[in-house]
Amino acid sequence: MPLTFIDIEKQKNWRIGILFVFLILMYFLISAGLLFSFFQMIPLGSHFGKTLLFSAGRLFLLFFFSTAIASVHFYFSAYDTVRYIRKNINATDPDPEDGIHKQLMNIMEEIHVVTGNSVRMQCVVIPSLAMNALSAIDMRGNALIAITEGLLSRLSRDQIEAVMAHEAHHILSGDCLESTVASSLFGVPASLVEKVQTFSEGRAYLSPAFIVTLLLLKLSQFLNMFISREREYRADAGAVRMTRNPLALAEVLHILWRNWRGSGFIGSGLENLCIVNPKVSSIDESEGWLANLLSTHPPIRKRISFLLTMAHVRLSDLETKNKTAAIPIPSEQNKDRYFALDHKYQWQGPYSLAELALLPWFAALTWISTGGTSMQKASDMPVLNDIFMKRIAQEGTAQTSHPCPVCHHPLLKRSVEKTRVMQCKFCGGTLVDHNRVFRIIARGEDGYSERIRTLSKITLKKNQLKKIARSVKGSEQNIPLLSCPQCKNKMTRAFYSLVYLIDLDRCSWCRVTWFDRDELKMLQCMIHTRMASERLL
Amino acid sequence: MIVVWIILGILVFVLLWVIITFNLLVSLRNQVHNAWKQIDVQLKRRHDLIPNLVSTVRGAMEFEQDTLEKVINARAKAVSAVGTQQKASAENMLTQALGRLFAVMENYPDLKTNQNIMQLQEELTSTENRIGFARQLYNDLVANYRTKQEIFPNNVIVSFFAGFQKEEYFEAEESDRAVPKADISIRPE
Question: Taking the model in full, what pTM does it have?
Answer without folding.
Answer: 0.75
